[in-house]
Amino acid sequence: MRMKATILASAVIAATALTGNAPPAAAQESIYVPLFTYRTGPFSGSGIYIAEGMHDYLEMLNQRDGGIGGVKIAIEECETGYDTKKGLECYEAVKDKKPVVINPWSTGITLPLIPRASVDKVPVLSMAYGLSASAIGDTFPWIFNPPATYWDGASMILSYIGAKEGGLDKLKGKTLGFIYLDAGFGKEPIPLFEQMAKDYGFTLKLYPVPATEMQNQSSQWLNVRRDKPDFMMMYGWGALQPTAVKEAAKINYPMDKFISIWWASEDDAGAAGDASKGFKSLNWHATGASFPAIADIKKYVTDKNLTQTDKSHLGRVLYNRGVYNSMLIAEGIRNAQKLTGKKVINGEDMRRGLETLNVDEARLKEIGLGGFTGPVKLSCADHNGHFATFMQEWDGTKWAKIPGDIKPMADKVNPLLTAAAKDYTDKNGNWPKRTEACDKAS
Amino acid sequence: MDLLYKILIDPFVQMGAAPDLLVQTLWEGLVSGVLYSLIALGFVLIFKASGVFNFAQGIMVVFAALTLVGLHEIGVPAFIALGLTIVVMFGLAYLVERLMLRPLVNQPDIILFMATFGLTYFLIGFGELVFGGNPKKMITSQLYLPSGAYDIKMFGGFVSLQKIDIAAAVIVSLMVISLALFFQKTRIGRALRAVADSHKAALSVGISLEQIWVVVWFAAGIVALVTGIMWGARSEVSFSLQIIALKALPVLILGGFTSIPGAIIGGLIIGIGEKIGEFYWGPLLGSGIESWLAYVIALIFLLFRPQGLFGEKIIERI
Lengths: 442, 318
Fold this sequence. Notes:
The complex is a heterodimer.
Chain A: H1 2-19, H2 24-28, E1 30-37, H3 44-65, E2 72-79, H4 84-95, H5 107-120, E3 124-125, E4 143-144, H6 150-165, E5 175-181, H7 184-187, H8 190-200, E6 203-209, H9 218-227, E7 231-235, H10 240-250, E8 258-260, H11 266-269, E9 280-283, H12 292-302, H13 317-340, H14 347-355, E10 358-359, H15 361-366, E11 376-377, E12 389-394, E13 399-406, H16 410-427
Parallel strand pairs in A: 1-2, 3-4, 5-6, 5-7, 7-8, 8-9
Antiparallel strand pairs in A: 9-12, 10-11, 12-13
Chain B: H1 2-17, H2 19-50, H3 57-73, H4 78-101, H5 109-131, E1 149-154, E2 157-162, H6 163-185, H7 187-197, H8 199-204, H9 209-234, H10 241-244, H11 248-255, H12 260-281, H13 290-304
Antiparallel strand pairs in B: 1-2
């Protein structure tokens, strides 16, 4: 019996050593980047593309360049199912492995991580989601949400509608409907919409959709039919979006007046078939796979089956969104390495790297993403950038870019952001004053 | 005063002012109700035969629909895929009886209930492994299910009746009639009712519990498949469909866990009640009330009929 136990114990030790389950030396030679993803559950329809894009870009850097600055990226996915509780479990699971950045991929998960980030010294990258006010770097030095906040997005949708109507003053007397996931994410732009409704004299109608009713929206769209809003705006995710598009078509709502924030995928837009034509969504990067970086993903990752990605997903809008997210991570790491002179950086270094991020046109071209998106430059005070987006329209088979940049209404959004940041710190008691120094590039 | 007007008068003024919208709301409620009934029916069948609340009914809806669409995706013609899906659901029923229910005979109901939790998580994992997490489009046209709508002009407005909703109502009605006939008129149906009354008494007259359980789980599987097709056609086939199964709870509370007519009537009351409530009274409460309104309706009924509309009144000697 004892002999058996000894053999078993030896085998376990040998297996552990061989598979490298506890290799502290190896860990020091890599940069650990956990990715909170959801390939399962009610929101997987959106989450899978994002997960694939994020993973594949980083894996491509590992395969093609041997990582970043000669250091491999240790990529680890943690499945959250878009569930805040599971997201926090993921955070606890990865926290001690010295992650350089956390990507929550859920506003609900981001919100409880905001106060923890400064304590655990791990920056949180909530790319174009999360708390809009966290764009203010002086108050939230550990949170980054480029390239635009949800409030920017709301103001850009209103700006677009205003332009269609012949000026924002023409919104007076109009009715704008807002259908949204009844959760932190969907509710985020409501304060801005309410303020804008007062400023421009339009009536705002709210149509919340609880997560349990995402595929059962007939009530909300009956209300839309009664209220006859001149435009419909949507902050949706997962199954909410294709159902909303189908329901809009069902009540013959004019699809060209139905505008989504930047999360609508091709599957969502095309849900109603031909009747979907004209549906619109904000975006800030290209769709399609005709970029050298994405060609390299195909060559080094998908063709070698180093990923779970379905090859047909390359170039889809949310796949490319995942690529964009990882581009920010990679450039942040590269910048941190340059700034600190270290190859293996930590969370604090990454925070500095993100705070001085400057990905200009030349750099985008250099990394194989020329023409993919606009430049990104962050600073100590501004962790978002509030960059312009554009509108894209569903033509029945693909997204077609509508020419012209749409800038956020800074004069309206910024004072509200400042007030919201102050409100946040007031409500959170002893919110720490920023002690982190600003780097010169900032 | 203004609030009282908004609660007690205004909704009825709206109903009179736009009767087409009232008819549309009633129709939407009816269709939702029919579909809720269908989900509840799956629960009732299993509860009647084994006294188990089958937590896995929601995921069975997803699993059946994904099997159908998944088979079609790999090139199987739609109706053959439908037939194969029915075979798969039979296989599932057989395996559930063989591997889950049989070893747990004579265990307390709560053990069986927990086992259905296990089955749920197994089917989620297995389904994702086989079909992936990507949402899929229901093969509506391939199954010759209609699309489009009839727009009927009435009361100065119009009422839009989706053809798929009409088809759902017809198919569900036929299904309920067939199930009722099956359980009332056939030998297996009578055996099922005997099992529902008393396992021991049924066993003593030679009824095979194993056979009955397979039949009932298979019937629940068929109900799940039809539910998956109908809900999938309205939205998409994805794992989020399993959340819809939660809608069956207030229906069951209202209709009783053991009554097929209860599931039907309960579903209709909940469906119509929540749509009317959401449409006319929802805006007063910030909208989005239907997720809890269904439970309020069910609880109000419970105050007067604790056993549900058609549930059995249980009298126990203490």
